[in-house]
Amino acid sequence: MRNFILKLALVFLALPAGLAAAHGVTATEGNAKVADFDIVYAEIKAAPNWLEFKMDLSGKAGESKPTPSGKLAGSDVFSYVWPTKLDSETVGFEKEQGILALAVTAHPDFDDTPLFDENGDGDLENDGNVWHAHWVVLVGDEQCGKGALKVKDIPEGETPKLPATWPGLPLLLDSPGYTPVFSGKSVKVRVPFRNAEELRGVAFDGVTAGLRVNESAHAPLLCVVDVKDVASGDLSLPGTVE
Q1: Arithmetic mean of pLDDT, 17-32
Q2: Which residues are within 8 A (CB) of 36 and not within 5 positions of it... i.e. 6 or more apart?
Q3: Whose CB among 54, 77, 78, 93 lies 3.0–4.6 Å from 188's, allowing a Cys bridge?
Q4: CA dihedral defined by 57, 53, 190, 14, rounded to 10 degrees?
Q5: How many CA atoms lie within 13 A of 163 on its CB side?
Q6: How far is residue 156's CA from residue 111's CA, in Å, rounded to a whole number?
Q7: Cα-flanking dihedrals φ and ψ of residue 150, to 5°?
Q8: 161 and 14 in contact (C-beta within 8 Å)?
Q9: What's the rounded Cα separation, in Å, for the pair 128 and 229?
């Protein structure tokens, strides 16, 4: 699976930003050990001022979540991810920072959406175990493993351009408050996006993965450690925004 991650980085660099045909990605069923992370189809559709991200699984979407560890360091994150060829600047980061992806995540040991109360209990800081959406920028880092990716760290002392809903973590991660909808074997996220129809033809793929917070809680802070399934099978980003 680590080789898949390396291929993703290579494909990202090789593919053109827009392709003529527009289609989703139909995946081979049975590639993941856990059915709710076994991708059968992934798509991104564009409409006036909206992008809609959707993933179909062979099992009930969102059923599995990480086991709580009681601490941030070494804790796990489960995710449904759409890696794209969109430039990182599109959502408020600086240009060409890495692979921009939309990720739907759950992680019981920390909360990275300080502006939102996903579970509705009046506490903004205890919602990590509720599925929620992020924009993330992924880059390679050998410290995470050979050919592995991580969410890009912000070096101490640097102040890069960041989205208004950046949660304050030293990562290129945004917490915009988009609500994922789980329905049977599907997960869907509708994202407000100005001029979304102009993004038709942009390449993407679908991935399910586990990430882990560094045991020492410092850079690399959040590594991709377990690729569960890849919609294309080879991380070729064959999907294009419809």
Answers
A1: 72
A2: 57, 59, 60, 61, 62, 63, 64
A3: 54
A4: 150
A5: 20
A6: 21
A7: -145, 165
A8: no
A9: 23
In the block, residue with structure tokens 């240009």: 95
Q: Which of 103, 237, 222, 224 is nearest to 169 (CA)?
A: 222
Q: How many CB atoms lie within 10 A of CB 154?
A: 17
Cα three-residue angle 91-94-98, rounded to 5 degrees: 85
Around Cβ 113, how many Cβ atoms within 10 Å? 21
Predicted confidence (pLDDT) per residue in 182-229, tens digit: 999 999 999 999 889 899 999 999 999 999 999 887 789 999 999 999
pLDDT tens digits along 131-181: 999 999 999 999 999 889 999 999 999 999 999 999 999 999 999 999 999
Task: Please say whether the beta carbons of 3 and 148 come within 8 A.
Answer: no
Distance CA 122, CA 124 (A): 6
Residue 92 DSSP SS3: coil
What's 104-142 look like in SS3?
Answer: EEECCCCCCCCCCCCCCCCCCCCCCCCCEEEEEEEEECH
CA dist., res. 99 & res. 40, Å (int): 23
Closest CA to 90 of 168, 170, 202: 202
Q: What per-residue confidence (pLDDT) applies to 3? A: 52
Strand, coil or helix: 100: strand
Cα–Cα distances in Å, from 105 out to 129, 133, 186?
Answer: 8, 6, 14
Helical (H) or strand (E) element with 4: helix 2-14
